Amino acid sequence: MKRLIGLTALAIFLVAICLQAASWQYDRHMQRSSYNSLIEANIERPTLSEGQISNLDDNDLSWRELKLTGSFRPEFELLVRNRYQNGEYGFGVVTLFRSNSGRNYWVDRGWAKAGPDAKTPPITQEIDDSAVTILGRIHTNRIDRQVGGTLFAMPRGDGSSELRKWDNEGQIKTENIYLDLIEASNFAPQFPTQLPPLSDGPHLAYTFQWLIFAILVIFGYGLVLREDFRDRQKTN
């Protein structure tokens, strides 16, 4: 009897774990599917002007195109590690942009190939502070959430991140969104950041996998009960 109670408790525990994992994977699938639907819908919506963005929430802003006129500030530029282009290692180039309204935006100008060694900085596309109109794709979070910390970002000169320093010292105050550069009026980005692949991923398949595991546990438990019943029949 003690053996049967122990096996029953183990079976219940394993089934509960499998169902919980299946539920988690299904939630991930739904979140990913909803996010992909948002991207697909918003990239087709009209381009926004700067005056429109303050009246819109994140769902109305995310992945929309935004047109700004102003100038880049090359003295405020970061190189973001661990960016790849066609399997080749490099950096993301993030530069501050000041619009004619006086607002500051971080702009991801795309990918730059890494130098031949860790001490050699990459060669980035040259820009200046002349007037320019840019078209960018909106991300509804701050860039420091993506590149904050020395493990992920570095300024052009040395190996420590100055992003937090710039913010803390009040040298710059940036908006709560950042942009992936699509095009500019006086230059074309060499390797612009691409849209993420719109795939639902493996989460739905993993959901069914965990459900199958739960069924197998129940099936195995049934076999154990049957064998236990047969053993009792033989001893009686």
Computed over alpha carbons, the radius of gyration is: 27 Å
Largest sheet, spatial ordering of strands: 2-3-4-7-5
Order of secondary-structure elements: HEHEEEEHEHEH
Inertia-based shape: elongated
Strand proportion: 25-35%
Tally of individual domains: 2
The chain-level mean pLDDT equals: 85
How far do the termini sit from each other? 15 Å
Biggest beta sheet summary? 5 strands, mixed, barrel
Tally the beta strands: 7
Unreliable stretches (pLDDT < 50, length at least 5) are 157-161
Q: What is the count of DSSP helices, taking H or I runs of 4+ residues? A: 5
Structural class: alpha+beta
Proportion of helical residues:
25-40%
Helix/strand layout:
Blueprint: H1 2-42, E1 48-49, H2 58-61, E2 65-85, E3 88-99, E4 104-113, E5 131-139, H3 144-147, E6 153-155, H4 163-168, E7 174-184, H5 203-235
Parallel strand pairs: 1-2, 4-7
Antiparallel strand pairs: 2-3, 2-5, 2-6, 3-4, 5-7
Question: Could you characterize what this model shows?
Answer:
The protein has about 240 residues and is of the alpha+beta class. The protein folds into two domains: about 1-40 and about 200-235; about 45-185. It has five helices and seven strands; from the N terminus they run H-E-H-E-E-E-E-H-E-H-E-H. The chain has a five-stranded mixed beta barrel. Strand 2 and strand 3 form a beta hairpin. Helix 1 (about 1-40) runs antiparallel to helix 5. The protein is elongated and about 95 Å long. Mean pLDDT is about 85; it is low at about 155-160.
